[in-house]
Sequence to fold (194 residues):
Amino acid sequence: MRKYLGYALYMGLCALFILPIFITPFLPALGAPGLFTIMQNLYAPTCHQLASRSICYFSDGTIDDCARNGTAVSGRQSEMHFDSIYGYKFPVCSRDVAIYGAMLLGGLLFPFAKRIDDRIVPPLIYFAVALVPIALDGGTQLIGLRESTNLLRMITGFIAGFAVPFYMIPMINTFVLGPGRETRVNRSQDSQIR
Fold:
C-alpha cells in the first residue's frame, strides 16, 4: 500500500514528536520525575518554555495556566520543574502545545477531507490567512502593544497548526510517491496560461 506511505510518514513523525509533549506533565504523578526532567530538557531547544506563557498539570487533576490564581511565575525551563503544589509544566509553551496538537488532529482528519495520497498543495494564500491571527497576536505582543493570554495563544496556535497537514501531507506525498497526474495536469495548465 504505497499510497499510504506519505501520510504514514507524516503521522509517524508527528506522533513521535508530539505525543511525548502531552505525556510529560503526568510523568511525576506516574513515579517518573527523572524522565519528566529529561523531557523538559529535550524540548528546551524547541521552545522558550516561559512558565508565564505555559500550561501545567496540577495535583487536583486540572490543566490550567501555570500562573493560575494570580501566582506570578517567571523564568525559563530550568526553573520550571515545579512540584505538586505549583503544577507540572508541559515541555513547550501554550501556543506550541496548540500548534502541535492541531497538527496531529489535522493529520487525523486529513483522510476525511482529502484523498490519502493527494499531491495537490492548496494555494498558499489559505496558509497565509491561517497565519494572520498568530502573527497579529505574537507581533503585537512582541512590540509591546499588549500582553497576550494563554487562551488567545492557544486559539491562534491551533488555527495555524491545523493548516499544516493540509500542506505538508501533499508535499510529502509528492516527494515519496512522485508527482501525480493531477500535479502534472495543473502544471501544464499553468504553463498554457503563461
Q: What stands out?
A: The chain has two domains: 2-89, 95-179. Strands lie at 55-57, 63-65, 88-89. Confidence is low (pLDDT under 50) at residues 72-80.
